[in-house]
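User: Can you predict the 3D structure for this chain?
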Amino acid sequence: MKIAVTYDNGNIFQHFGRTESFKVYDVEDNKVVSSEVLLSNGVGHGALAGLLADHKIDVLICGGIGGGAQAALAQAGVELVAGAQGDADQAVEAYLKGELVSTGANCDHHHGEDHACGDHGCGHHEEGHSCGGHHEEGHGCGHHEDDGCGSGCGSSCGGGCGASAPSITGPNVGKTCRAHYRGTFNDGTQFDSSYDRGEPLEFVCGAGQMIRGFDAAVANMEVGQIIDVHLMPEEAYGMPDPNAVLTFEIAQLPGSEDLTVGQQVYLSNQYGQPFPVKVTAKDDVNITLDANHEMAGKELNFRIELVEVK
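Assistant: Here is the predicted structure, written as structure tokens:
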């Protein structure tokens, strides 16, 4: 058996998608027989999952991890133990003794633990938040964020973080695809369009970078093909999760005294990773923030044109 740990100077690195190295342990008869450090070259969560699969990793121990990364690891057949902290060697020993279990770190902010938000305060969200964001550009409807279960978490956590969903299959799975799309609600209102930006969306099909229904559609398309798909919430951003509605005392959340109902802001989880929330209620003492994705519960329609497969 091989166990990999996100690694930094002896400790568990706390952000899977940005880890620069893994420490890989070879285990026989439930004991570590050798270890080595594997450089990741900072390739992002989809490719990191592929890297672990290529090295025949059976188990990943890490700290913070997003829903998209979890889906990619599940597809690669890698067992995930998230939420671990401290010394890497000790964590592996604890795992082998059955004393280390996953805390579901990718969804921490959905359960309202004190450490999830209160210690870090609020940051105002200065720019318009488009439907999910793709990579760092902030557009491309359907992307699952990897930063602490951020905006994409409305689907990944609302739907059980993708752990029980069947694997996406098709000739394009695992390949880099470029696609144009136009997204509309059932009343015909457009909410996003790559055509308007003049640049196709690029992503690795089946790596958890896109909402599931979009990924599944592209998986079986041919270059040049144009299709129309209708996605129920379970295939898109999931249903709203009542556990993602968080109430804090204003005095315990620095910066919240200046916020207004309807405002979009960012909170940071215990790993310093930002995720967007909306202010839904506020009085003199308390403030309520909704961490559900803004598209949670919505049926979505896409016209997708597959431009290129690499």
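The longest helix spans residues 45-54. The helical segments are 45-54, 67-76, 88-96, 114-117, 153-156, 194-197, 212-219.
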